[in-house]
Design brief:
CATH architecture of one domain: Distorted Sandwich
CATH topology of one domain: Coagulation Factor XIII, Chain A, domain 1
Strand content: over 45%
Distance between the termini: 98 Å
Helix content: under 10%
Radius of gyration: 32 Å
Structural class: mainly beta
Shape: rod-shaped
CATH class of one domain: Mainly Beta
CATH superfamily of one domain: abc- transporter (atp binding component) like domain
Order of helices and strands: EEEEEEEEEEEEE
Number of helices: 0
Strand order of the largest sheet: 5-13-12-8-9
């Protein structure tokens, strides 16, 4: 890191009756300049929902009510140095009730250009309608900085149509 300390010198002069300029006073002050703040940069690269036993990019549509699922978010370190990344998200059901809130910082560090996955716990999609999600990707846990975010639809859930009771009905004979 370069030395950011400077010394400022100040001089004063006066012009005497004889027309000459003479040095009057001199002072020096040491000043320490603060380093510019570090600009943190990162990107949410994947937003996925575990549906039908595979990770799929959301938003997803027409998921049957009663489905159990998980969210996975992947964030990339866009800086030239190793960084500790964290994420927070909140999933709301069609009525606006929070069905999952997740927050976690990675244990170690993510290198430049590398990605870190965050996978939340399971929750049920038990109401018909649109589920929404809010996501924040952060760096610097000591003084958290949000580097990317997403607010939008997670999925739509549709009602499950029950199987009719007479599905297995077979006619063996028809008489008129």
């Amino acid at each position: 890191m370069p030395n950011r300390d400077v010394t400022i010198h100040a001089y004063s002069y006066y012009e005497a009756a004889d027309g000459y300029v003479y040095s009057d006073d001199e002072a020096a002050k040491d000043v320490s300049l603060a380093a510019p703040p570090e600009v943190f940069e990162g990107t949410i690269t994947k937003k996925e929902l575990d549906y039908e036993d595979r990770w799929q990019a959301f938003p997803l549509y027409n998921i049957p009510a009663g489905t159990r699922t998980r969210v996975r978010i992947t964030g990339r370190n866009d800086m030239a140095s190793n960084q500790k990344m964290g994420t927070w998200w909140q999933v709301k059901d069609p009525d606006g009730r929070v069905v999952q809130e997740y927050a976690k910082w990675e244990t170690y560090w993510t290198g430049p250009g590398k990605a870190q996955e965050f996978t939340g716990g399971s929750f049920d999609l038990d109401k018909v309608g649109t589920y929404r999600i809010s996501i924040a990707l952060s760096m610097n846990p000591e003084a958290e900085v949000v580097v990317d975010d997403y607010y939008g639809n997670l999925c739509t859930v549709e009602a499950v149509v029950p199987e009719p009771e007479f599905r297995g009905l077979v006619l063996s004979e028809y008489t008129k």
